[in-house]
Amino acid sequence: MRVAFIGLGSMGHPMACNLARSDVELVVYNRTRSRAEDLAGLGAAVAGSPREAAEGADCLITMLADDAAVSAVLEGEQGALAGLPRGAVHACMTTISVAFSRRLAERHAGLGQGYVAAPVFGRPDAAAAAKLWVVTGGPKDAVGRCRPAFEAVGQGVLELGEEPGQANSVKLAGNFMLAAMMEAFGEAAAMVDKAGVSPGRFLEVVNGHLFRSPVYENYGGMIAEQRFEPAGFRMRLGLKDMRLLLEAAEASEAPMPMGSLVHDRYLTGVARGYGDQDWSAVSRVARQDAGLTE
Length: 294
What we know:
Layout: E1 2-6, H1 12-20, E2 25-29, H2 34-40, E3 45-46, H3 50-54, E4 59-62, H4 67-74, E5 89-92, H5 98-110, E6 114-117, E7 120-121, H6 124-128, E8 132-137, H7 140-153, E9 154-161, H8 164-194, H9 199-210, H10 214-225, H11 235-251, H12 257-271, H13 283-289
Parallel strand pairs: 1-2, 1-4, 2-3, 4-5, 5-6, 8-9
Antiparallel strand pairs: 7-8
Helix pairs in contact: 5-8, 8-10, 8-11, 8-12, 8-13, 9-10, 11-12
């Protein structure tokens, strides 16, 4: 199986490393070529353009920042679509909008290619350990053809249906729940801090005795320690996801009042200069609103 992998950022690079160690034949492309060079040492071929990477591929994987970045590597004379063979499958693992994902499905169908939406849940450390959860939307046969690649980067593949937008909707909804948790914990931690209880001790109480959640353990720990760098997932990307969430909610006439609130809190954080910090730094907004010094 020949896999073309485009996008070697904080998530894509460890995913590609795991693919290089698997049984697939891997070709990689990244706009900054130096990010791809070490993969050559693992046996991957390094392409000079998205088109070159996609030529002869059975499965094309894109792991990029947003809709615009995916479109940029697909289109044009040197874009991946110009090289991807008929019958090949594009698995978009980027967190993109529901509407764009559906347009990609139509675009590939017109070219005789398959398309699967396959966003992932997990941070860079999970990507490095091949512990991501891959959620898929697309025809079963197309998902099946990409499954060896998905299994090389994750601990499980969760098939949600044959319509690609289903996977993108679940990814955005899941990220909203994570963002809402960070906003809620940030507010609560600021309140108890003003009462003289450390956020770390508060986390021990709620996550040790009220409920237990690895999400609270990980993100709650980062918030309690004010540990937002290096960013596993930058706040400006969190803001992008909240914007895409609200776009999808409006299109389906599903009110999300808390989604609007969380979006605005992320917008505030970016406006205050935290855009390149981890998205858990949204808790800084609550601390500042409470008059707490950092």
